[in-house]
Amino acid sequence: MLLTPIEAAAFHTLAVEGALSVTALDAGYWNYELNSSWHGLQDAHLIQVYQTTYGSVVGLTDHGRAHARTFLSDVPDLSAPASVANRAYLNDALRLLYSRGYKPSTDPPTFRKYPHSPTRQTHTSEIISCTIRIPDSAYADVSYRPSRAPHSMLHLPYFRPGQPRLYASIATGGITPKQGEVYLKRHKHHLLYWQTPLLLVVPDPAPFASLLARQVKIGGIHHHPNLQLITLPIPSPQIQYLGAEPW
Question: Which superkingdom is the protein from (predicted)?
Fold first, then answer.
């Protein structure tokens, strides 16, 4: 299959990451000087653009996944618009955090389980949460504190100092404060090992004011809240003009 270098690079990233926002694709794979972009992948029927609560997001078609499996052993199987939107939101959230000094973790993500799997596959490709390592300056602080986990457990997910769990979803409008409380209860004991807050990526932090206030009141890790919000807004709708532009 003949693809331009930019198309091939964009397709490889999509095949690895599962889904991306159009904003992320345009930022990484649109060369204005060469008038070359990722959009040719649509003409090749390798990708599909979905209109979702997170704006325009891109995932692979069945044809695209089949092609990706010719050079990758593990290709995410995401086709529902909600699943594609959630993965694109998570990937944008990770890019934002990496730009702030956070680093990838070697811990595996948690995937959604099949309620009734027709095959032996137990999990879908939908990521519920993943682990991320806090910036070096903060990591150096927590990594030298006495660990609260047995030494034999430090190599296991959920027990690494400075490597909290991250939740990010957008398909239903974003994580709600009620869900945030559920996640805090789920990781109540893990927080002692992380020695750093649970991370939630949300489009609007305002609804969490009460939950954050309660966290401050009850205290947490070293008298700091157990929860940290990362704001990643929903993109503003883009106006598309039909015919001649008004200027």
Answer: Bacteria
